[in-house]
Each structure stands twice: as structure tokens, then as C-alpha cells.
């Protein structure tokens, strides 16, 4: 069984997604420092945004292995990192170190294969483009967005949408993006969806 350091976080990240995270806890600074020094990945686990990392004893089953793409120190002295999702993993158990750093035992979980955008799901890409235009803090993470890949589009939607963790996990667990495509198409029939996300 494999082991990996795990960062619990209220924002969610899937393969090929990017996220900027401010690191403040000493245990997470240790994790990031070791990851940079060893060019090693760590995992990002979904938690409810209202949950404090120090009290996490359980993480939803599917997490994402991430790589650090950039880092810098903020004026406040806190460490800011930009991470990119690489692979999904299935977590078997968690352990906590003396300084509250979490380590997960895991097995690899299948990443979704690419699905070409077609006439039936083009609206998902079109709506995501509009959403990105209204949210430059997200769109700037993707200088080369892959709007031709329905899998890429679906994963970005799942990262952004305020869906309950259990529902996200149920979708992410599936072997392909097909069920998520159908879910999003039904959801986007509500024309107020984008306005509610701004």
C-alpha cells in the first residue's frame, strides 16, 4: 500500500486543475518544504469549507495527487503555492503526525479518459467560457484551456460548483465523465446558475 502526505482543503481539485493555496500551519509548511526539496507530490483531500484542518480525522475516499507548479512568500510572510492536480487516488486510512500533518495510505483510482466535445455537450464548454470571463481569478490559472475535451470541462465545473461533497464524490468515483456530463446538462437548464456563482 502506498503512503502520501495529505493536505485537507475546502476547495476541490481534480486532474489538470490548478489552485492557489496559502499555507499557514507549521505541519503543512513542513510538507510543502519537503515536497519542493524532494520534487515529491502530496495529496489534496476534500473537506467541508467550515471544517478546521486540525480536527480532521476522516477524508472522503477520493483525493487528488498534486504537484507544486509555483510558490512565493506573501507580504504577510505566509507561503503561497500553486498546485496542479495529477491523479485521483482512493484513500484507505489516515494517520496524524506529532504536528498534525496527515498521511494517507492509498491506491490509485482511475482518471477519466478524454471525451471529445460534441453538439450534445457543447453548451457545457460555452457556459464555462462565460463563467471564466466573469471570474478572472480562476481563468488566469488556465492560459491554455482545453474546451475541446468534455472531461476537462466537467472537472473544472465540479471544482467550481457548490455541490455537497458526497455528491461530488459520487460523480468523481465513476469510471468516466459521462454521468457528470448528464448531471451538468440537467443542472445548466437553470439559466440562473452562472449568476448565482458570481
- Kindly provide the radius of gyration, computed on alpha-carbon positions and rounded to a whole number of angstroms: 17 Å
Low-confidence stretches: none
Percent of sequence in beta strands:
25-35%
**What form results from the Cα inertia axes?**
globular
- Main β-sheet: number of strands, strand sense, barrel status? 5 strands, mixed, barrel
Give the ordered list of helices and strands: EEHEEEEHHHHHH
Q: How many strands appear in the DSSP assignment?
A: 6
Number of helices, counting only DSSP H or I runs of 4 residues or more: 7
In spatial order, strands of the major sheet run 1-3-4-5-6
Structural class by helix and strand composition? alpha+beta
Amino acid at each position: 500500500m502506498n503512503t502520501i502526505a495529505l493536505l485537507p482543503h475546502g476547495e476541490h481539485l481534480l486532474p489538470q486543475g490548478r489552485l492557489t493555496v496559502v499555507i499557514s500551519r507549521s505541519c503543512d509548511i513542513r510538507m510543502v518544504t519537503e515536497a519542493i526539496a524532494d520534487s515529491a507530490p502530496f495529496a489534496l483531500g476534500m473537506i467541508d469549507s467550515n471544517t478546521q484542518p486540525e480536527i480532521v480525522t476522516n477524508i472522503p475516499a477520493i483525493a487528488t495527487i498534486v504537484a507544486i507548479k509555483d510558490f512565493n512568500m506573501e507580504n504577510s510572510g505566509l507561503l503561497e503555492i500553486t498546485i496542479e492536480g495529477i491523479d485521483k487516488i482512493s484513500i484507505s486510512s489516515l494517520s496524524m503526525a506529532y504536528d498534525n500533518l496527515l498521511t494517507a495510505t492509498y491506491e490509485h483510482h482511475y482518471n477519466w479518459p478524454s471525451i471529445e466535445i460534441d453538439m450534445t455537450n457543447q453548451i457545457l464548454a460555452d457556459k464555462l467560457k462565460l463563467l471564466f470571463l466573469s471570474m478572472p481569478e480562476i481563468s488566469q490559472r488556465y492560459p491554455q484551456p482545453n474546451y475541446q475535451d468534455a472531461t476537462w470541462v466537467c472537472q473544472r465545473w465540479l471544482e467550481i460548483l457548490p455541490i455537497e461533497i458526497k455528491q461530488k464524490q459520487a460523480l468523481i468515483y465513476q469510471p468516466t465523465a459521462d454521468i457528470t456530463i448528464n448531471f451538468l446538462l440537467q443542472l445548466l437548464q437553470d439559466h440562473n446558475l452562472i449568476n448565482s456563482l458570481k
